[in-house]
Amino acid sequence: MRNILFYFLFIALLFSSCRSGADGDFPGREFIPEMAHSISFQPNLYNYYHLNTWGGEGEYYGFTLPRTPVEGTLPLGQAGLYKAIDDAEAAEIAARLQGFSMSGSVPYYYEDTEEDRQRAMDEIIDNPFPITTAGLAKGKKLYDIYCGICHGDKADGNGFIVRDDGGVYPAQPTNLLSEEFIEASNGRFYHSIMRGRNVMGAYNDKLSFEERWQVIHYIRSLQAEEMGVVYNEEENTLNDIDVPGAIWLQ
């Protein structure tokens, strides 16, 4: 009996050794296909696998196509301040937005080209969120996480990656306190966050719609500090674009 078991084990090992292994897109033999191939439909993902899906390949493709949204609905975050019909409605929306973290689903109609970058700089002027103490605090936290290592704690371009006490990066990051960037439109900052610029990658997948604008508010506050002017929820003497929160809520 023992000899028979050893014989079958030897045959099994010999047979398995002759099978082709994983190579390129071929995963090789799979003992439990469900561990690598989901049996459920994945949103906007074509993952047909003949052993654990129903219907033919063409039928499965039809199942995975995006469905039409319910009439009258909008993605979370899309109904922003730009939808307001007048200043009074915009102020009401702004008040309701405070404290909420909106998604990144707000449409952005500027591509990663120099032409669209210039268009964004010319067309995106107003920050849709008022200056608030809570927003500046949130902006500081996010800036320290995502921006400070390159642009520095003070936004002067002297981040950790280039400082003498540990910097190893050869290219000096942008000094956001320069006159050029103090006078730059909000669109210049927002487009860089959405599409990246030079060696800086995009951060649109890391920051929500509101978070992007709060980071820009915080950068403006650092510019105001450098200029010796005021930028807070009570007063803004840095520019005539960004609106203090206290004015919105009057």
Structure at a glance:
The chain is 40% helix and 0% strand. With 250 residues, it is mainly alpha-helical.
Percent of sequence in beta strands: under 5%
CATH fold-level name of the largest domain: Cytochrome Bc1 Complex, Chain D, domain 2
Q: Which structural category fits the helices and strands?
A: mainly alpha
Note the gap between the termini: 92 Å
Q: What characterizes the major β-sheet? A: none
Order of helices and strands: HHHHHHHHHH
How many structurally independent domains?
A: 2
Number of discrete helical segments: 10
Mean pLDDT over the full residue set = 79
Give the fraction of residues assigned to helices.
40-55%
* Rg: 27 Å
CATH class of the largest domain: Mainly Alpha
Under the CATH scheme, the architecture of the largest domain is Orthogonal Bundle
Walkthrough of the structure:
- It is a single chain.
- The chain folds into two domains: 31-67, no CATH class; 81-248, Orthogonal Bundle (Cytochrome Bc1 Complex, Chain D, domain 2).
- The radius of gyration is 27 Å and the shape is extended.
- The chain starts with a helix and ends with a helix.
- It contains ten helices and no strands.
- It has helices spanning 2-18, 57-64, 87-97, 114-123, 133-146, 148-151, 179-182, 186-195, 209-227, 245-248.
- By secondary structure, the chain is an all-alpha fold.
- Helix 4 (114-123) runs antiparallel to helix 8 (186-195) and helix 5 packs across helix 9.
- Helix content is 40%, strand content 0%.
- The mean pLDDT is 79.
